[in-house]
Amino acid sequence: MALTIEESGRLAGLLAEHAERVVQRWTEIVAASLRGRLSQAELRLQVQELHRSMIEVGAEGLTDVQSERAAEVRAVLAELSRGRARQGFSATETAISIYALRDVLVELAESGDVELRDVIAFNGLIDQMGLFTFETYVQAREGLIADQAEQLLELSTPVVKIWDGVVAVPLVGTLDSARAQVVMERLLQTLVDTGSPYAIIDITGVPAVDTQVAQHILKTVVAARLMGADCIISGIRPQIAQTIVALGIEFGDIATKASLADALRHVLRLTGVETARRHARREA
Question: How far apart are CA 176 and CA 251, in angstroms?
Answer without folding.
Answer: 19
